[in-house]
Amino acid sequence: xxxxxxxxxxxxxxxxxxxxxxxxxxxxxxxxxxxxxxxxxxxxxxxxxxxxxxxxxxxxxxxxxxxxxxxxxxxxxxxxxxxxxxxxxxxxxxxxxxxxxxxxxxxxxxxxxxxxxxxxxxxxxxxxxxxxxxxxxxxxxxxxxxxxxxxxxxxxxxxxxxxxxxxxxxxxxxxxxxxxxxxxxxxxxxxxxxx
Length: 195
Prior knowledge:
This is Activator of Hsp90 ATPase homologue 1/2-like C-terminal domain-containing protein. By secondary structure, this protein is of the alpha+beta class. The protein contains 5 helices and 11 strands, in the order βββαββααββββββαα.
């Protein structure tokens, strides 16, 4: 996945976002995102986690609403050419969510899970499994939204069950799909903040 060496990291082929070789904290990720507004920051941490950070020129409440409302998620989730065909979300502790996209050949890929802790307008913790599974095991997902000057910063942590699972994800083009989706999310909440 990496092609061009850079101090402290390597460049991803698909998005040219810096993938750090260090083990950043969420505060460091937030600082990186604020230093490069509107760009997705990606970094592995330890053996099991991938951290993502991105700024939005909208308040945390608007980003949270667009992230958890299925009708709004349909407008931004998925990579280009992979439209959302199923969307359901009940963002309360114990509530379930399920999303599915179709690729250009019509193959369906879904992901689903259950919300654990939910703090409205600030974030959540949830489980996640892909269907069909393309990496082994389940994932623990955490979204934290922090208020920042001119909007907010989203900090997303994916914790995988094994190093091989995390390695498969890092080697995939997920960074390009996620970056494109978050760009659409930004356009959605920045032009007319939902909620």
